[in-house]
Each structure stands twice: as structure tokens, then as C-alpha cells.
Design a protein that fits this description.
Number of domains: 2
Radius of gyration: 17 Å
CATH architecture of the largest domain: Up-down Bundle
Strand content: 5-15%
Helix content: 40-55%
Structural class: alpha+beta
Order of helices and strands: EHEHEEHHHHHHH
Bound molecules: glutathione
Largest sheet: 4 strands, mixed
Number of strands: 4
CATH class of the largest domain: Mainly Alpha
Low-confidence stretches: none
Shape: globular
Oligomer: single chain
CATH topology of the largest domain: Glutathione S-transferase Yfyf (Class Pi), Chain A, domain 2
Number of helices: 9
Length: 208
């Protein structure tokens, strides 16, 4: 199997891809796209992702044995799960539990936590309305996760899945969000046990 070509950077969305590739034990070549230096806007990268965002990938051994290009981290995790038969169950009822929590990350946690990072850390002016709006929703989402994880080790089906891999890199930034994770003990327990996985931890380190 030829290595996957991965285009990424050291962000929460970027880390999802390296976590999944490490957990699957797939070989890959890492192409850093420095979004702080606008690498995402080069014609070469736009040819891979017309939306100019990381992560993106090319699988030289795609469906029908042809190269396959993909962007959107959630789609990439689903593709790699289907390619390897790992971290997403075949059973329909179970599979949609994984997809549900993956979509919760993609449509809720990612966009909202991303705005918290922006308004708390990157915005050129202090905008209390923006800070409060996104921080309050971020805390609410931590509460949803905390309630759901009561008595559970994983987000879906009580088995590790791409839903966990997608969510960990956002909880990793709880310090950036200025969220006291100890107030969400089920999230803290789940997060710490996920970070104890050696492959996941390797994926979180990359790209350094
Ligand atoms: N929904 C997309 C979001 C990707 C995304 O927002 N990537 C950010 C880094 S985490 C990015 O490339 N930002 C560069 C920019 O917006 O110019 C995904 O999950 O892949």
C-alpha cells in the first residue's frame, strides 16, 4: 500500500488526521501547510483543497486503485475508517452512533471552539459579545459531552471510534478556551484515557 500524502498543520483539525493515521498504523508522508504563512492559498494546495483549509490528503491507492483526493477532516476520518475497516462499526445502528457524534464535533464543537480560540486569542480587538456568545456555547457543549460520557469510556457504542479521535484534539485546547476541565469530570476522565493511547499521543504531536 503506497503511503497516504497528508497536507496538514498543527491545529485541532489537522491533528485529527495524524491521530487517525497513527491509530490505523497507515504509512503517510506529511506535507506541512503553514497556515500562518498562507501556504493554504497557493495554487498547488488549492488544487488539492479548493476551500484552502487543512487537513487534506491524497490516497495513491484510492477506490478502483486510482489516486483519490479528499478534504474535510470528518470525511477523511470516515474514508480511512472504511479503507482500513477500523474505528467505525459495520452494523448500521452502531455506525450511525459514530457518525452522529462525529457530526456533533464537525458541526458543533469544531466551529464553536474555533470561534472561542479566535475571539479569546487572535482577534485584534476585544469583542465581549463574540467572546461571551462562543464561550457560553462552548461550555454548554462541554456539559453535553459530560452528561453523555457518564458511565461511558467512549463517545459511541462504548468502543473507540473516529468520533473520539475527532473530538480529542479540540478538548486538548481546553486551556486556550479557558475552560476548567475538572468541572466536567466525565470529559476529563475520557480525555485522559484517550491521551494515554500511544498512537493517539503520537498523532497529537504531529506535525510539530
Ligand atoms: N471543516 C473543516 C475545517 C478546516 C479548518 O478550518 N482548518 C483550519 C485550521 S484548523 C484552516 O485551515 N485555517 C486556515 C484558514 O482559514 O485560512 C475540516 O474539518 O477539515
Amino acid at each position: 500500500m503506497a503511503p497516504i500524502e497528508l497536507y496538514t498543520w498543527k491545529t485541532s483539525n489537522g491533528r485529527k488526521a495524524t491521530v487517525m493515521l497513527e491509530e490505523c498504523g497507515l504509512e503517510y508522508n506529511l506535507h506541512p501547510i503553514n497556515i500562518g504563512q498562507d501556504d493554504q492559498f497557493t495554487p498547488e494546495f488549492i488544487a488539492i483543497n479548493p476551500n484552502s483549509k487543512i487537513p487534506a490528503m491524497i490516497d495513491p491507492d484510492g477506490p478502483d486503485g486510482k489516486p483519490y483526493t479528499l478534504f474535510e477532516s470528518g470525511a477523511m476520518l470516515m474514508y480511512l475508517a472504511e479503507k482500513t475497516g477500523k474505528f467505525m462499526p459495520q452494523d448500521m445502528a452502531k455506525r450511525y452512533q459514530v457518525i452522529q457524534w462525529l457530526m456533533f464535533q464537525m458541526g458543533g464543537i469544531g466551529p464553536i471552539f474555533g470561534q472561542v480560540h479566535h475571539f479569546k486569542r487572535a482577534a485584534k480587538e476585544v469583542v465581549p459579545y463574540g467572546i461571551n456568545r462562543y464561550f457560553n456555547e462552548c461550555v454548554r457543549l462541554y456539559g453535553v459531552l459530560n452528561t453523555h460520557l457518564e458511565g461511558k469510556d467512549y463517545l459511541a457504542n462504548n468502543e473507540v471510534s473516529i468520533a473520539d479521535f475527532a473530538t480529542v484534539p479540540w478538548v486538548f485546547r481546553h486551556d486556550w478556551q479557558e475552560v476548567d476541565i475538572s468541572k466536567f469530570p466525565n470529559v476529563e476522565r475520557w480525555y485522559e484515557s484517550m491521551m494515554d493511547r500511544p498512537a493517539l499521543a503520537r498523532g497529537m504531536e504531529l506535525p510539530a
